[in-house]
């Protein structure tokens, strides 16, 4: 059996999410660049595997998938016995808690944090004007979400329970960018959120993803 | 398993999403209405069920959950042998459904909800007239998503795959008829399911 293919740049938060999962599961992969500056993600050949023209796309033998959280769930399902076996929990109850916090990430954490990642980390690089009103509005939204996390993480070491799971992993890419900006205090000033952030971001798998993000594009 | 309780509001799409799956599974449950108008969802008791202060929240005996799409996943797995089969056993088919469940959550729901909010909900709650610029912008975004749905549904009876699954059920609260032939046929199909009709019937129980 060969390796799986992941399409897209590691700098993309969604691609990074999949890379983190692959590394946790110790699944061999090939990272295939997509030249987004040249619009390759909107080219007909690419749209065949990702009809929304976004990254990542993913292939494993006869399966083609997209949406980073769907890819991650698939990896946990197919490679259940590889790498971090507890990434998606053991049994119905653990899985239910992980699904809940995965949805919280997708529905509550992701929207405001994605806007901040774009405004604070990407817009400057792309020489686009930042929108202070949008930044302020989304800071406010993210702060409310992190207040809930702060309470949760008072009683629980990780979001879904005592162990690191896909639910925590899913937060890594956006949180990484935000903590690298002057709004990082949103996470680091909250005692439990900061403790959680320090712990999840120091995992070797995540450090490897950050290295890949810093490497010059191929 | 214990007594099933769904805390929610019958006009909340997220609540309806869970009601639909409860009915698909033929499960008995207690519906606990939450009075959004008086801010019950932000009060201590409800916050102990969903710290984000949003409906719905769900209990199955000792198990407490929030996030409608996590609750439906739980129900589909915990009660796999009851009622409609909403999951696929094959890893590949399950993964393909999972893609479209994420598409619903990430691509379909945001613009669809914003359109419904501007045109229907905002006036209903005394929030003023629809913001036309927002409506136009969100309808354009939704249109791009529905173009992709049209292509998918031309080659697959349902978004989930060759049979109705969780990814289709998740769309019921915001699905609507459309000029696109395959999307229209699919929307008509999923909206006519008895379980969905039963879910909507909760609205006539509303005070």
Automatic annotation (TrEMBL), chain A:
Keywords: Transferase
GO biological process, one term: glutathione metabolic process
InterPro entries: Glutathione-S-Trfase_C-like, Glutathione-S-Trfase_C_sf, Glutathione_S-Trfase, Glutathione_S-Trfase_N, GST_C, GST_Phi_C, Thioredoxin-like_sf
GST C-terminal domain mapped to chain residues: 91-218
Stretches assigned to the GST N-terminal domain: 2-83
GO CC terms: cytoplasm
Listed GO MF terms: glutathione binding; glutathione transferase activity
Reaction catalysed by this enzyme: RX + glutathione = an S-substituted glutathione + a halide anion + H(+)
Assigned EC number: 2.5.1.18
Keyword Glycosyltransferase part of the UniProt annotation: no
EC primary class: transferase
Origin superkingdom: Eukaryota
Matches recorded under SUPFAM superfamilies: GST C-terminal domain-like, Thioredoxin-like
Family: Belongs to the GST superfamily. Phi family.
UniProt name for this protein: glutathione transferase
TrEMBL record, chain B:
InterPro entries linked to this entry: Glutathione-S-Trfase_C-like (IPR010987), Glutathione-S-Trfase_C_sf (IPR036282), Glutathione_S-Trfase (IPR040079), Glutathione_S-Trfase_N (IPR004045), GST_C (IPR004046), Thioredoxin-like_sf (IPR036249)
A Pfam match: GST_C
GO BP, sorted A to Z: glutathione metabolic process; response to herbicide
Catalytic activity: RX + glutathione = an S-substituted glutathione + a halide anion + H(+)
Record domain GST C-terminal: where: 90-207
Keyword Phosphoprotein: no
Superkingdom as given in the UniProt entry: Eukaryota
Gene Ontology terms for molecular function: glutathione binding; glutathione transferase activity
Keywords tagged on the record: Transferase
Domain GST N-terminal: 2-83
EC number(s) stated in the UniProt entry for this protein: 2.5.1.18
Name of the top EC class for this enzyme: transferase
GO cellular component, as recorded: cytoplasm
The family this protein is said to belong to: Belongs to the GST superfamily. Phi family.
Protein name (record): glutathione transferase
Source organism (scientific name): Spirodela intermedia (Intermediate duckweed)
Species classification: Eukaryota, Viridiplantae, Streptophyta, Embryophyta, Tracheophyta
């Amino acid at each position: 059996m060969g390796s799986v293919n992941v399409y897209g740049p590691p700098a993309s938060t969604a691609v990074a999410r999949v890379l983190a999962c692959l590394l946790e599961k110790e699944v061999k992969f090939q990272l295939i660049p997509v030249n987004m500056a040249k619009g390759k993600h909107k080219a007909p050949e690419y749209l065949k595997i990702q009809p929304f023209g976004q990254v990542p796309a993913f292939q494993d033998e006869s399966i083609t998938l997209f949406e980073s959280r769907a890819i991650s769930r698939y990896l946990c399902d197919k490679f259940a016995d590889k790498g971090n076996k507890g990434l998606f929990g053991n049994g119905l109850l653990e899985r239910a808690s992980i699904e809940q916090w995965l949805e919280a990430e997708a529905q509550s954490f992701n929207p405001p944090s994605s806007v901040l990642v774009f405004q604070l980390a990407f817009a400057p690089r792309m020489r686009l004007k930042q929108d202070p009103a949008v930044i302020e509005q989304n800071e406010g939204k993210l702060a409310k979400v992190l207040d809930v996390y702060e309470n949760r993480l008072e009683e629980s070491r990780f979001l879904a329970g005592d162990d690191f799971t896909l639910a925590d992993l899913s937060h890594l890419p956006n949180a990484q960018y935000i903590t690298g900006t002057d709004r990082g205090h949103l996470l680091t000033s909250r005692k439990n959120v900061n403790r959680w952030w320090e712990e999840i971001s120091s995992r070797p798998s995540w450090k490897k993803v950050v290295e890949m993000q810093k490497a010059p594009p191929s | 398993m214990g007594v099933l309780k769904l805390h929610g509001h019958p006009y909340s799409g997220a609540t309806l999403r869970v009601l639909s799956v409860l009915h698909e599974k033929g499960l008995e449950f207690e519906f606990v209405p939450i009075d959004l108008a008086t801010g019950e969802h932000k009060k201590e008791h409800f916050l102990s069920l969903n710290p984000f202060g949003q409906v719905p929240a769900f209990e199955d005996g000792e198990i407490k959950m929030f996030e409608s799409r996590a609750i439906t996943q739980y129900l589909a797995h915990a009660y796999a042998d009851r009622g409609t089969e909403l999951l696929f056993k094959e890893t590949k088919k399950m993964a393909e459904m999972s893609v479209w469940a994420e598409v619903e959550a990430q691509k379909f729901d945001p613009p669809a909800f914003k359109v419904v909010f501007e045109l229907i909900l905002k006036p209903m709650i005394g929030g003023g007239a629809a913001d036309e610029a927002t409506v136009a912008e969100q309808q354009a975004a939704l249109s791009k998503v529905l173009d992709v749905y049209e292509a998918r549904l031309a080659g697959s009876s349902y978004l989930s795959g060759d049979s109705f699954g969780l990814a289709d059920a998740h769309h019921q609260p915001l699905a609507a008829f459309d000029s696109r032939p395959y999307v229209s046929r699919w929307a008509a199909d999923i909206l006519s399911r008895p379980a969905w009709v039963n879910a909507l019937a909760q609205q006539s129980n509303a005070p």
